Amino acid sequence: MTISVAASTRTLTAETVFDLLERVRHKTPRVHAITNAVAQSFTANVLLALGAVPSMTFAREEVAAFVAGADALLINLGTLDEARREAIPLAFDAARTAGRPVSIDPVFVNRSPVRCTYARDLIARGPDLVRLNEQELEALFPERANAEELIAAGTVLAVTGPEDRIEGRAEDFRLMNGHPLMARVTATGCAGGAVLSAFASVETDTALAAACGLSVFNIAGEIAAGRARGPGTLVPELLDALYVMSLDDIKARLRA
Ligand SMILES: Nc1ncnc2c1ncn2[C@@H]1O[C@H](COP(=O)(O)OP(=O)(O)OP(=O)(O)O)[C@@H](O)[C@H]1O
Ligand SMILES: Cc1ncsc1CCO
Ligand SMILES: [Mg+2]
Fold it and tell me: What are the required cofactors (predicted)?
């Protein structure tokens, strides 16, 4: 589904992408990620390699305090069990009170009607960003008008796949970086979502933050794929590529 409400498609420069990356590295933002059990370790390592700091507690008694002091909140629905279900509204409220950006990753809403209803209600609260793949987008918004309404109200959509699109109220982006091997490792989408949260903590233009964050993550994926022997070695190579990414790396590869 292509959603078209933005006034114009914006092109990124390598300098802009690197500037935001450097802002993340200098700020070392803490991203509180209520994420799924499969994605936790990879997501935490991606955030650390990027220069951010992860926290992942979802205990009912503690989650609000963790989020109140964090720089961004990520809510990922991949393993939506009882404890996470209880923590999510507490976390959302705490992030809103603290004025921190909220991102939602509605994993597998296309597989479970109950989850799809839950995700729709959560997204109706107006997060700053929703990151999802094409199948999840179709399940959440079978009516294109509903996605357009959400974007018009200020939520940015980041739709990933072989190509990525960032859809914002004023501008959208078309991103061509990445590598097919990234889809052969679990939770690359989830970990990429955490990168977008880190970028949203240093840039209030959420669409721009998402475009730069996803470009950095996907360029790291490309560099890693060039060195890896397969999915197993892609993971450590991707962490290393994120850790050392330079302006020259971005200049050589950015397609946005
Ligand atoms: N064929 C491809 N070519 C280039 N990049 C890709 C390709 N497939 C996925 N990617 C990139 O890999 C990352 C994961 O995207 P994908 O859409 O597969 O996420 P996802 O389905 O949410 O994954 P998961 O739920 O396993 O975390 C994104 O950064 C995306 O841009
Ligand atoms: C495989 C899997 N199952 C629930 S979450 C997850 C990670 C990819 O989203
Ligand atoms: Mg996903």
Answer: Mg(2+)
Count Cα neighbours of 69 within 13 Å in the Cβ-side half-sphere.
9
Determine the 3-state secondary structure of 110 from DSSP: coil
Instruction: Check if 183 has its Cβ closer than 6 Å to any atom of ligand 1.
Output: yes
Predicted complex: ipTM over 0.95: yes
- Whose tokens are 């939520």? That residue is 155
Give the pLDDT score at 212: 98
Distance (Å, whole) CA 118 – CA 191: 22
Residue 3 lies in a domain: no
In a domain, 7, yes or no: no
Q: What is the domain count for the chain?
A: 1
Band (3; pLDDT cuts 50, 70, 90): low
The verdict on residue 207 lying in a domain is yes
Specify the 3-state DSSP secondary structure of 7: coil
* pLDDT tens-digit map of 156-189: 999 999 999 999 999 999 999 999 999 999 999 9
Q: Which is the closest atom of ligand 1 to the Cα of 164?
A: 31
Residue 136's CATH number: 3.40.1190.20
- pTM to 2 decimals? 0.97
Residue 109, domain extent:
13-156+169-248
6 domain residue, yes or no:
no
